[in-house]
UniProtKB/TrEMBL annotation:
It holds the Pfam family MatE. This is Multidrug-efflux transporter. Its main location: membrane. Keywords: Antiport, Cell membrane, Ion transport, Membrane, Transmembrane, Transmembrane helix, Transport. GO terms for biological process: monoatomic ion transport. CDD domains: MATE_NorM_like. Signal peptide: none annotated. The lineage of its organism: Bacteria, Pseudomonadati, Pseudomonadota, Alphaproteobacteria, Rhodobacterales. It comes from Jannaschia seosinensis. One of its GO terms (molecular function) is xenobiotic transmembrane transporter activity. NCBIfam families: matE. GO terms for cellular component: plasma membrane. The chain crosses the membrane at residues 12-32, 44-72, 93-117, 129-147, 159-180, 192-213, 234-251, 263-289, 310-334, 354-372, 393-415, 421-442. It comes from the Bacteria. The gene is norM.
Length: 455
Protein backbone atom coordinates (compact mmCIF):
# COMPACT_ATOMS: atom_id res chain seq x y z
CA UNK A 1 0.00 0.00 0.00
CA UNK A 2 1.36 3.41 -0.96
CA UNK A 3 2.22 5.56 2.08
CA UNK A 4 -0.10 8.55 2.56
CA UNK A 5 -0.34 11.52 4.90
CA UNK A 6 -3.43 9.93 6.42
CA UNK A 7 -1.38 6.86 7.37
CA UNK A 8 1.28 9.10 8.91
CA UNK A 9 -1.31 10.98 10.93
CA UNK A 10 -2.61 7.68 12.25
CA UNK A 11 0.85 6.32 13.11
CA UNK A 12 1.87 9.55 14.81
CA UNK A 13 -1.30 9.46 16.89
CA UNK A 14 -0.76 5.83 17.92
CA UNK A 15 2.80 6.59 18.95
CA UNK A 16 2.18 10.09 20.26
CA UNK A 17 -1.01 9.79 22.32
CA UNK A 18 0.58 7.68 25.07
CA UNK A 19 3.53 10.08 25.08
CA UNK A 20 1.14 13.01 25.32
CA UNK A 21 -0.67 11.25 28.16
CA UNK A 22 2.56 10.53 30.00
CA UNK A 23 3.75 14.12 29.57
CA UNK A 24 0.42 15.44 30.85
CA UNK A 25 0.58 13.02 33.78
CA UNK A 26 4.14 14.13 34.54
CA UNK A 27 3.02 17.75 34.78
CA UNK A 28 0.05 16.66 36.90
CA UNK A 29 2.54 15.55 39.55
CA UNK A 30 3.78 19.13 39.92
CA UNK A 31 0.31 20.55 39.38
CA UNK A 32 -1.18 18.45 42.20
CA UNK A 33 1.62 19.71 44.45
CA UNK A 34 0.60 23.26 43.50
CA UNK A 35 -3.10 22.49 43.98
CA UNK A 36 -2.67 20.87 47.39
CA UNK A 37 -0.08 23.32 48.72
CA UNK A 38 -2.27 26.20 47.52
CA UNK A 39 -4.91 24.90 49.89
CA UNK A 40 -2.32 24.57 52.64
CA UNK A 41 -1.15 28.21 52.55
CA UNK A 42 -0.34 31.00 50.10
CA UNK A 43 3.22 31.04 51.44
CA UNK A 44 3.62 27.33 50.67
CA UNK A 45 2.20 27.92 47.19
CA UNK A 46 4.71 30.70 46.50
CA UNK A 47 7.62 28.54 47.72
CA UNK A 48 6.37 25.58 45.67
CA UNK A 49 6.28 27.75 42.55
CA UNK A 50 9.94 28.72 42.95
CA UNK A 51 10.97 25.20 44.04
CA UNK A 52 9.36 23.48 41.07
CA UNK A 53 10.93 26.01 38.71
CA UNK A 54 14.36 25.40 40.28
CA UNK A 55 14.02 21.61 40.18
CA UNK A 56 12.58 21.53 36.66
CA UNK A 57 15.31 23.79 35.28
CA UNK A 58 18.00 21.39 36.52
CA UNK A 59 15.99 18.34 35.44
CA UNK A 60 15.68 19.50 31.84
CA UNK A 61 19.38 20.37 31.81
CA UNK A 62 20.29 16.84 32.89
CA UNK A 63 17.73 15.13 30.65
CA UNK A 64 19.45 16.37 27.49
CA UNK A 65 21.45 13.14 27.28
CA UNK A 66 18.28 11.05 27.42
CA UNK A 67 16.61 13.13 24.70
CA UNK A 68 19.70 13.04 22.51
CA UNK A 69 19.84 9.27 22.92
CA UNK A 70 16.25 8.95 21.68
CA UNK A 71 17.18 10.16 18.20
CA UNK A 72 20.25 7.90 18.14
CA UNK A 73 18.23 4.85 19.16
CA UNK A 74 15.50 5.56 16.60
CA UNK A 75 18.11 5.97 13.86
CA UNK A 76 19.79 2.69 14.91
CA UNK A 77 16.44 0.89 14.70
CA UNK A 78 15.97 2.32 11.22
CA UNK A 79 19.21 0.48 10.37
CA UNK A 80 18.04 -2.62 12.36
CA UNK A 81 21.06 -2.38 14.67
CA UNK A 82 19.72 -3.69 18.00
CA UNK A 83 23.14 -3.87 19.67
CA UNK A 84 23.58 -0.16 19.09
CA UNK A 85 20.21 0.47 20.76
CA UNK A 86 21.40 -1.28 23.95
CA UNK A 87 24.70 0.58 23.99
CA UNK A 88 22.97 3.91 23.55
CA UNK A 89 20.65 3.21 26.51
CA UNK A 90 23.55 2.09 28.71
CA UNK A 91 25.73 5.13 28.08
CA UNK A 92 22.77 7.45 28.43
CA UNK A 93 22.13 5.96 31.89
CA UNK A 94 25.80 6.47 32.83
CA UNK A 95 25.63 10.13 31.87
CA UNK A 96 22.30 10.63 33.65
CA UNK A 97 23.59 9.30 36.98
CA UNK A 98 26.80 11.34 36.76
CA UNK A 99 24.80 14.48 35.97
CA UNK A 100 22.41 13.93 38.88
CA UNK A 101 25.26 13.67 41.36
CA UNK A 102 26.93 16.76 39.94
CA UNK A 103 23.71 18.77 40.39
CA UNK A 104 23.05 17.71 44.00
CA UNK A 105 25.12 20.52 45.63
CA UNK A 106 22.88 23.10 43.96
CA UNK A 107 19.85 21.68 45.76
CA UNK A 108 21.65 21.65 49.11
CA UNK A 109 22.64 25.32 48.68
CA UNK A 110 19.35 26.43 47.07
CA UNK A 111 18.41 28.92 49.82
CA UNK A 112 21.39 31.24 49.36
CA UNK A 113 21.10 30.88 45.57
CA UNK A 114 17.46 31.99 45.60
CA UNK A 115 18.23 34.84 48.01
CA UNK A 116 20.94 36.05 45.65
CA UNK A 117 18.36 35.97 42.84
CA UNK A 118 16.15 38.44 44.71
CA UNK A 119 13.65 36.21 46.52
CA UNK A 120 12.57 37.27 50.00
CA UNK A 121 13.88 35.43 53.03
CA UNK A 122 10.73 33.39 53.69
CA UNK A 123 10.32 32.16 50.11
CA UNK A 124 14.03 31.29 49.84
CA UNK A 125 14.02 29.46 53.19
CA UNK A 126 10.82 27.53 52.48
CA UNK A 127 12.08 26.60 49.02
CA UNK A 128 15.32 25.29 50.45
CA UNK A 129 13.34 23.11 52.87
CA UNK A 130 11.62 21.51 49.87
CA UNK A 131 14.64 21.30 47.57
CA UNK A 132 17.05 19.73 50.06
CA UNK A 133 14.76 16.71 50.10
CA UNK A 134 13.58 16.79 46.47
CA UNK A 135 17.15 17.01 45.14
CA UNK A 136 17.78 13.38 46.09
CA UNK A 137 15.14 12.42 43.57
CA UNK A 138 17.25 13.68 40.67
CA UNK A 139 18.99 10.30 40.17
CA UNK A 140 15.74 8.33 39.69
CA UNK A 141 14.24 11.25 37.74
CA UNK A 142 17.05 11.27 35.16
CA UNK A 143 17.13 7.47 34.96
CA UNK A 144 13.39 7.60 34.33
CA UNK A 145 14.04 10.07 31.49
CA UNK A 146 16.59 7.64 30.02
CA UNK A 147 14.15 4.73 30.14
CA UNK A 148 11.33 6.85 28.73
CA UNK A 149 13.51 7.77 25.76
CA UNK A 150 14.61 4.16 25.25
CA UNK A 151 11.05 2.81 25.29
CA UNK A 152 9.76 5.67 23.14
CA UNK A 153 12.40 5.00 20.48
CA UNK A 154 11.20 1.38 20.45
CA UNK A 155 7.60 2.66 20.13
CA UNK A 156 6.62 1.03 23.44
CA UNK A 157 4.89 4.11 24.78
CA UNK A 158 1.87 2.71 26.60
CA UNK A 159 3.93 1.51 29.54
CA UNK A 160 5.38 5.03 29.84
CA UNK A 161 1.82 6.35 30.16
CA UNK A 162 0.68 3.79 32.72
CA UNK A 163 3.78 4.18 34.86
CA UNK A 164 3.34 7.95 34.93
CA UNK A 165 -0.35 7.68 35.81
CA UNK A 166 0.56 5.38 38.71
CA UNK A 167 3.09 8.00 39.83
CA UNK A 168 0.38 10.69 39.81
CA UNK A 169 -1.89 8.54 41.99
CA UNK A 170 0.95 7.86 44.44
CA UNK A 171 1.86 11.54 44.58
CA UNK A 172 -1.70 12.58 45.40
CA UNK A 173 -2.02 9.94 48.11
CA UNK A 174 1.29 10.67 49.82
CA UNK A 175 0.71 14.42 49.53
CA UNK A 176 -2.68 14.04 51.22
CA UNK A 177 -1.05 12.16 54.07
CA UNK A 178 2.10 14.18 54.58
CA UNK A 179 1.18 17.76 53.63
CA UNK A 180 -1.93 17.88 55.80
CA UNK A 181 -1.15 15.14 58.35
CA UNK A 182 -4.16 12.96 57.56
CA UNK A 183 -4.79 9.49 59.04
CA UNK A 184 -2.35 10.10 61.86
CA UNK A 185 0.60 10.95 59.58
CA UNK A 186 2.79 13.91 60.57
CA UNK A 187 1.79 17.28 59.09
CA UNK A 188 4.92 18.17 57.11
CA UNK A 189 3.68 20.77 54.62
CA UNK A 190 6.36 21.46 52.00
CA UNK A 191 8.58 18.68 53.35
CA UNK A 192 5.75 16.21 52.86
CA UNK A 193 5.35 17.25 49.22
CA UNK A 194 9.10 16.81 48.69
CA UNK A 195 9.09 13.31 50.21
CA UNK A 196 6.17 12.38 47.96
CA UNK A 197 8.09 13.59 44.90
CA UNK A 198 11.13 11.43 45.68
CA UNK A 199 8.88 8.40 46.20
CA UNK A 200 7.14 9.03 42.88
CA UNK A 201 10.42 9.26 40.98
CA UNK A 202 11.69 6.06 42.57
CA UNK A 203 8.51 4.17 41.68
CA UNK A 204 8.71 5.38 38.08
CA UNK A 205 12.27 4.16 37.48
CA UNK A 206 11.51 0.76 39.04
CA UNK A 207 8.42 0.19 36.90
CA UNK A 208 9.99 1.33 33.64
CA UNK A 209 13.21 -0.57 34.38
CA UNK A 210 11.31 -3.80 34.99
CA UNK A 211 9.43 -3.40 31.72
CA UNK A 212 12.56 -2.51 29.74
CA UNK A 213 14.14 -5.76 30.98
CA UNK A 214 11.19 -8.17 30.89
CA UNK A 215 8.38 -6.56 28.90
CA UNK A 216 6.98 -7.98 25.64
CA UNK A 217 9.62 -7.85 22.92
CA UNK A 218 12.23 -6.34 25.24
CA UNK A 219 14.40 -9.38 25.97
CA UNK A 220 16.15 -9.25 22.60
CA UNK A 221 17.73 -5.90 23.48
CA UNK A 222 19.40 -7.38 26.60
CA UNK A 223 19.39 -4.03 28.32
CA UNK A 224 21.23 -5.24 31.44
CA UNK A 225 24.01 -6.94 29.47
CA UNK A 226 27.45 -5.45 30.18
CA UNK A 227 25.85 -2.66 32.17
CA UNK A 228 29.19 -1.96 33.85
CA UNK A 229 31.17 -1.78 30.61
CA UNK A 230 31.97 1.62 29.11
CA UNK A 231 31.47 2.27 25.41
CA UNK A 232 33.45 5.45 24.98
CA UNK A 233 32.65 6.23 21.31
CA UNK A 234 28.91 6.03 21.97
CA UNK A 235 29.22 7.95 25.22
CA UNK A 236 31.02 10.71 23.30
CA UNK A 237 28.29 10.72 20.63
CA UNK A 238 25.53 10.98 23.24
CA UNK A 239 27.44 13.72 25.03
CA UNK A 240 27.95 15.56 21.74
CA UNK A 241 24.22 15.42 20.95
CA UNK A 242 22.94 15.68 24.51
CA UNK A 243 24.67 18.69 26.03
CA UNK A 244 23.24 21.08 23.41
CA UNK A 245 19.79 19.54 24.03
CA UNK A 246 20.20 20.10 27.77
CA UNK A 247 21.30 23.70 27.29
CA UNK A 248 18.44 24.27 24.84
CA UNK A 249 15.99 22.93 27.41
CA UNK A 250 17.48 24.95 30.23
CA UNK A 251 17.52 28.10 28.12
CA UNK A 252 13.78 27.69 27.57
CA UNK A 253 13.06 26.74 31.18
CA UNK A 254 15.38 29.58 32.18
CA UNK A 255 13.09 31.93 30.30
CA UNK A 256 10.18 30.77 32.45
CA UNK A 257 12.34 30.65 35.58
CA UNK A 258 13.31 34.27 35.00
CA UNK A 259 9.65 35.18 34.65
CA UNK A 260 8.96 33.48 38.01
CA UNK A 261 11.78 35.46 39.62
CA UNK A 262 10.38 38.69 38.17
CA UNK A 263 6.96 37.79 39.60
CA UNK A 264 8.64 37.30 42.96
CA UNK A 265 9.99 40.87 42.69
CA UNK A 266 6.41 42.11 42.16
CA UNK A 267 4.99 40.23 45.16
CA UNK A 268 3.53 37.05 46.63
CA UNK A 269 0.15 37.46 44.89
CA UNK A 270 1.81 37.84 41.48
CA UNK A 271 4.04 34.83 42.14
CA UNK A 272 1.14 32.67 43.28
CA UNK A 273 -1.00 33.64 40.25
CA UNK A 274 1.95 32.99 37.96
CA UNK A 275 2.50 29.57 39.54
CA UNK A 276 -1.09 28.53 38.90
CA UNK A 277 -1.30 29.92 35.36
CA UNK A 278 2.09 28.56 34.29
CA UNK A 279 1.14 25.14 35.66
CA UNK A 280 -2.05 25.12 33.61
CA UNK A 281 -0.28 26.26 30.43
CA UNK A 282 2.43 23.66 31.05
CA UNK A 283 -0.27 21.00 31.19
CA UNK A 284 -1.56 21.83 27.71
CA UNK A 285 2.01 22.35 26.45
CA UNK A 286 2.73 18.71 27.27
CA UNK A 287 0.46 17.73 24.37
CA UNK A 288 2.98 19.35 22.04
CA UNK A 289 5.90 17.90 23.97
CA UNK A 290 4.54 14.38 23.50
CA UNK A 291 3.91 14.98 19.81
CA UNK A 292 7.42 16.42 19.50
CA UNK A 293 8.89 13.22 20.93
CA UNK A 294 6.79 11.16 18.53
CA UNK A 295 8.10 13.34 15.70
CA UNK A 296 11.70 12.69 16.84
CA UNK A 297 11.13 8.93 16.67
CA UNK A 298 9.29 8.93 13.34
CA UNK A 299 11.72 11.33 11.69
CA UNK A 300 14.67 9.47 13.20
CA UNK A 301 13.47 6.18 11.72
CA UNK A 302 13.08 7.77 8.28
CA UNK A 303 16.52 9.39 8.63
CA UNK A 304 18.05 6.00 9.40
CA UNK A 305 16.34 4.51 6.34
CA UNK A 306 17.36 7.53 4.22
CA UNK A 307 13.73 7.95 3.12
CA UNK A 308 13.12 11.62 2.39
CA UNK A 309 9.43 11.30 1.55
CA UNK A 310 8.70 9.43 4.79
CA UNK A 311 10.61 12.05 6.75
CA UNK A 312 8.64 14.94 5.30
CA UNK A 313 5.28 13.17 5.80
CA UNK A 314 6.17 12.41 9.42
CA UNK A 315 7.06 16.05 10.02
CA UNK A 316 3.88 17.36 8.41
CA UNK A 317 1.67 14.93 10.33
CA UNK A 318 3.16 15.99 13.66
CA UNK A 319 2.74 19.69 12.87
CA UNK A 320 -0.91 19.24 11.84
CA UNK A 321 -1.75 17.41 15.07
CA UNK A 322 0.04 20.07 17.12
CA UNK A 323 -1.95 22.80 15.36
CA UNK A 324 -5.24 21.14 16.25
CA UNK A 325 -4.12 20.95 19.89
CA UNK A 326 -3.30 24.69 19.89
CA UNK A 327 -6.82 25.59 18.78
CA UNK A 328 -8.37 23.40 21.49
CA UNK A 329 -6.12 24.88 24.21
CA UNK A 330 -6.97 28.45 23.22
CA UNK A 331 -10.67 27.64 23.37
CA UNK A 332 -10.20 26.15 26.85
CA UNK A 333 -8.35 29.21 28.18
CA UNK A 334 -10.90 31.69 26.86
CA UNK A 335 -13.95 29.62 27.79
CA UNK A 336 -13.08 28.19 31.20
CA UNK A 337 -10.10 30.16 32.52
CA UNK A 338 -11.82 31.57 35.62
CA UNK A 339 -13.22 28.19 36.64
CA UNK A 340 -9.85 26.45 36.24
CA UNK A 341 -7.91 29.08 38.21
CA UNK A 342 -10.52 28.91 40.99
CA UNK A 343 -9.83 25.21 41.52
CA UNK A 344 -6.40 26.07 42.95
CA UNK A 345 -7.58 28.56 45.55
CA UNK A 346 -9.14 28.51 48.99
CA UNK A 347 -11.93 31.08 48.71
CA UNK A 348 -11.66 31.89 52.41
CA UNK A 349 -8.14 33.23 51.91
CA UNK A 350 -8.27 37.05 51.74
CA UNK A 351 -5.73 37.06 48.86
CA UNK A 352 -7.73 34.61 46.73
CA UNK A 353 -9.76 37.23 44.72
CA UNK A 354 -6.60 39.09 43.68
CA UNK A 355 -4.85 35.86 42.68
CA UNK A 356 -7.93 34.75 40.72
CA UNK A 357 -8.23 38.01 38.79
CA UNK A 358 -4.54 38.11 37.88
CA UNK A 359 -4.41 34.41 37.03
CA UNK A 360 -7.29 34.75 34.56
CA UNK A 361 -5.59 37.65 32.77
CA UNK A 362 -2.34 35.67 32.55
CA UNK A 363 -4.19 32.76 30.93
CA UNK A 364 -5.38 35.14 28.23
CA UNK A 365 -1.75 35.89 27.39
CA UNK A 366 -0.99 32.15 27.60
CA UNK A 367 -3.55 31.57 24.87
CA UNK A 368 -1.38 33.73 22.62
CA UNK A 369 1.94 32.09 23.41
CA UNK A 370 0.51 28.57 23.05
CA UNK A 371 0.87 28.97 19.30
CA UNK A 372 4.53 29.99 19.29
CA UNK A 373 5.46 27.66 22.17
CA UNK A 374 4.03 24.71 20.23
CA UNK A 375 5.88 25.78 17.10
CA UNK A 376 9.29 25.90 18.74
CA UNK A 377 9.01 22.56 20.56
CA UNK A 378 7.78 20.78 17.43
CA UNK A 379 10.67 22.21 15.40
CA UNK A 380 13.11 21.05 18.09
CA UNK A 381 11.66 17.53 17.98
CA UNK A 382 12.01 17.37 14.21
CA UNK A 383 15.61 18.60 14.33
CA UNK A 384 16.52 16.01 16.96
CA UNK A 385 15.18 13.33 14.65
CA UNK A 386 17.86 14.29 12.15
CA UNK A 387 20.41 14.55 15.02
CA UNK A 388 20.84 18.30 14.68
CA UNK A 389 21.22 19.78 18.17
CA UNK A 390 24.08 22.29 18.29
CA UNK A 391 22.78 25.02 15.98
CA UNK A 392 19.28 24.83 17.53
CA UNK A 393 20.93 25.42 20.91
CA UNK A 394 22.48 28.64 19.62
CA UNK A 395 19.16 29.80 18.18
CA UNK A 396 17.39 29.00 21.46
CA UNK A 397 19.92 30.87 23.59
CA UNK A 398 19.59 33.96 21.42
CA UNK A 399 15.79 33.81 21.27
CA UNK A 400 15.11 33.04 24.93
CA UNK A 401 17.90 34.90 26.70
CA UNK A 402 18.84 37.53 24.15
CA UNK A 403 15.26 38.52 23.32
CA UNK A 404 12.72 36.89 25.65
CA UNK A 405 14.13 37.72 29.08
CA UNK A 406 15.00 41.36 28.24
CA UNK A 407 11.54 41.78 26.68
CA UNK A 408 9.85 40.36 29.79
CA UNK A 409 11.77 42.76 32.02
CA UNK A 410 11.14 45.73 29.73
CA UNK A 411 7.40 45.11 29.32
CA UNK A 412 6.93 44.26 32.98
CA UNK A 413 8.86 47.10 34.61
CA UNK A 414 10.02 50.10 32.53
CA UNK A 415 6.89 49.96 30.35
CA UNK A 416 4.75 49.43 33.47
CA UNK A 417 2.69 46.46 32.21
CA UNK A 418 3.36 44.41 35.34
CA UNK A 419 2.75 40.64 35.39
CA UNK A 420 1.01 40.65 32.00
CA UNK A 421 3.99 42.44 30.49
CA UNK A 422 6.35 39.80 31.86
CA UNK A 423 4.31 37.16 30.04
CA UNK A 424 4.21 39.18 26.81
CA UNK A 425 8.00 39.04 26.85
CA UNK A 426 7.73 35.26 26.82
CA UNK A 427 5.80 35.50 23.56
CA UNK A 428 8.63 37.51 21.98
CA UNK A 429 11.28 34.90 22.84
CA UNK A 430 9.17 31.93 21.81
CA UNK A 431 8.16 33.51 18.51
CA UNK A 432 11.78 34.18 17.57
CA UNK A 433 12.70 30.58 18.39
CA UNK A 434 9.82 29.20 16.32
CA UNK A 435 10.83 31.12 13.20
CA UNK A 436 14.53 30.28 13.46
CA UNK A 437 14.13 26.57 14.27
CA UNK A 438 11.46 25.89 11.66
CA UNK A 439 13.58 27.58 9.00
CA UNK A 440 16.54 25.44 10.07
CA UNK A 441 14.59 22.20 9.67
CA UNK A 442 13.25 23.17 6.25
CA UNK A 443 16.76 23.96 5.03
CA UNK A 444 18.19 20.66 6.28
CA UNK A 445 15.47 18.48 4.78
CA UNK A 446 15.45 20.28 1.45
CA UNK A 447 19.23 20.07 1.03
CA UNK A 448 20.16 16.76 2.73
CA UNK A 449 22.07 14.63 0.22
CA UNK A 450 21.66 11.25 1.99
CA UNK A 451 17.88 11.32 1.62
CA UNK A 452 16.14 9.70 -1.29
CA UNK A 453 12.59 10.01 -2.58
CA UNK A 454 10.52 6.88 -2.79
CA UNK A 455 7.30 6.73 -4.69
Amino acid sequence: MKPTLSNDLSRTLVLGLPLVGSQVAQVLIGLTDTLMLGRYSVEALAAATISHTFFFSLLVLGSGFAVGAMGMAAEALGREDETQVRRVARMSAWLSVATAMALLPLFLASGPILSALGQNAQVAGDSQTYLRIAGWGMVPALLTATLRSHLSALEHTRIVLWATLAAVALNIGVNWLLIFGNLGAPELGLRGAAIASVGVQTLSVLVLGAYALRGPGMARFELAKNLHRPDWPILRDIFRLGWPVGLTHVSESGLFAASALMMGWIGTVALAAHGIAIGISALTFMVHMGLSQAATVRVGRAWGQRDGDALRRAALAAMILSGVAVVLAMALYFGAGRFIIGLFLDNSDPQAPAILSLGVSLLMVAALFQLVDAGQVMALGLLRGVQDTRRPMVYALIAYWGLGIPASWAFGFPFGLGPQGVWLGLVVGLMAATVALTTRFLRITSAAAPLTSRS
